[in-house]
């Protein structure tokens, strides 16, 4: 009987930038700049992975592609990553992926100075011990023409040894995608059943995902979130911030067993919230949702509110959003999908004591908002290009601004 414990991770995306970090109120303050803090979180994640590997007494770490988000990293950042990699107490195998293929300026010279780090540059097996091999399927360019993992394992014969295969790319499990470059999960599962390989460690999808019923083929997910979880439907990046501790054991009288345990690496979150607004209660529910978040300082929220709100609720929302913006890493509206108009209640209108001409103007503005929302299809049913070109929504936005201005001016006159 032989046993090996592997820490499976991928998609570190080191050096990744995101445009929405610029929505922070004052990104010029370096200490509170979310891009700076996010980059630090990526560096901290590497250190956390080293700590997990040591605590779990792992025999090796495999990083299944996209270690780097770009090959143009600052020298001081590379130096910090190098120092973090030194903290691993076991061998670390780095696989080039589509973001950092071998044919680019991969920072190999820097990595070669580390005795515990191996860049997987071919499909030749690496011997971890007498009974364990690491077999990689590196990407040489960012668009492979054949299933890279199958090319690495297709000629392997059955063995009593443990073989961990490391690959990167899209699999047949996701939608109706097809093509010679797609990683065939069913074919790999058959190779595992035939004892040609033992476990397939994949990267590319940033959510930790089991890909076959046996639990022998997994995406590890990114150790730090990279994209939005869409709420309330639950789509998008659903299970990131993770790494996998994989224990593989061979038996003389039964098939090789594989046990996988998810480990949390980072608590950063990115949520994209859409909500239909019909009245003040809906506005209050949205504000309550934002206030309920824990760890706001490491949470990015993009929101798209669609519908209409009374004047008072609309003003209260604006005030609370302005206050909450200082608590979140980033809190900002979707440029294309956030469409919240003002619809004053009859009580709000009567309280203004408007002269006849002003009341007529207000009613015209309200009708403009109503007509737009009644005529336009749901924003959720249209793509971003269609929304961006929707001039009636722009008219509703101008009408909403005019209503808010009218209410503010007459409220000041009446106060």
TrEMBL record:
Residue ranges that the Swiss-Prot or TrEMBL entry lists as coiled coil: none
Listed Gene3D superfamilies: 3.60.21.10
> Does the keyword section mention Phosphoprotein?
no
Citing just one GO molecular function, the answer is: exonuclease activity
Domain (Calcineurin-like phosphoesterase) ranges: 5-207
Query: What InterPro entries has UniProt attached to this entry?
Result: Calcineurin-like_PHP, DNA_Repair-Maintenance_Comp, Metallo-depent_PP-like, Mre11_N, UCP033093_metalloPase
Question: Could you tell me the keywords of this UniProt record?
Answer: Exonuclease, Hydrolase, Nuclease
Entry keyword rRNA-binding: no
Q: Which domain of life is it from?
A: Bacteria
Q: Which PANTHER family match?
A: COMPONENT OF ATP-DEPENDENT DSDNA EXONUCLEASE (PTHR30337), NUCLEASE SBCCD SUBUNIT D (PTHR30337:SF0)
Q: Which family does it belong to?
A: Belongs to the SbcD family.
Q: What is this protein called?
A: Nuclease SbcCD subunit D
């Amino acid at each position: 009987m032989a046993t090996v414990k592997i820490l499976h991770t991928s998609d570190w995306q080191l050096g990744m930038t995101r445009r929405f970090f610029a929505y922070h109120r004052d990104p010029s303050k370096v200490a509170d700049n979310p891009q700076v803090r996010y980059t630090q979180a990526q560096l901290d994640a590497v250190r956390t992975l080293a700590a997990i590997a040591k605590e779990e007494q792992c025999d090796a770490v495999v990083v299944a592609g996209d270690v780097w988000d770009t090959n143009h990293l600052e020298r001081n950042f590379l130096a910090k990553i190098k120092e973090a990699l030194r903290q691993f107490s076991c061998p670390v195998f780095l696989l080039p992926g589509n973001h950092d293929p071998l044919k680019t300026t991969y920072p190999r010279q820097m990595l070669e100075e580390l005795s515990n780090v191996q860049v997987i540059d071919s499909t030749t097996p690496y011997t971890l011990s007498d009974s364990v091999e690491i077999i990689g399927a590196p990407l040489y360019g960012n668009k492979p023409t054949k299933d890279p993992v199958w090319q690495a394992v297709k000629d392997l014969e059955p063995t009593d040894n443990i073989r961990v295969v490391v690959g990167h790319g899209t699999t047949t499990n996701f939608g109706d995608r097809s093509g010679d470059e797609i990683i065939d999960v069913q074919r790999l599962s058959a190779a595992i059943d035939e004892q040609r390989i033992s476990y397939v460690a994949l990267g590319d999808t940033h959510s930790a995902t089991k890909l076959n019923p046996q639990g022998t083929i997994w995406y590890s997910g990114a150790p730090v979130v990279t994209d939005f979880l869409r709420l309330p439907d639950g789509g998008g990046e659903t299970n990131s911030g993770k790494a996998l501790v994989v224990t593989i054991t061979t038996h003389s009288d039964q098939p090789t067993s594989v046990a996988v345990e998810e480990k949390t690496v980072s608590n950063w979150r990115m949520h994209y919230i859409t909500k239909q607004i019909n009245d003040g209660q809906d506005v209050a529910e949205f504000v309550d949702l934002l206030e309920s978040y824990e760890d706001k300082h490491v949470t990015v929220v993009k929101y798209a509110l669609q519908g209409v709100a009374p004047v008072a609720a609309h003003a209260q929302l604006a005030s609370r959003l302005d206050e909450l913006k200082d608590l979140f890493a980033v809190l900002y509206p979707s440029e294309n999908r956030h469409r919240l108009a003002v619809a004053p209640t009859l009580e709000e209108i009567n309280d203004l004591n408007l002269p006849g001409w002003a009341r007529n103007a207000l009613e015209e503005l309200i009708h403009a908002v109503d007509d737009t929302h009644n005529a336009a299809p749901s924003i959720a049913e249209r793509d971003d290009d269609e929304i961006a070109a929707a001039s009636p929504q722009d008219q509703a936005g101008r009408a909403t601004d005019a209503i808010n201005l009218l209410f503010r001016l007459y409220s000041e006159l009446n106060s």
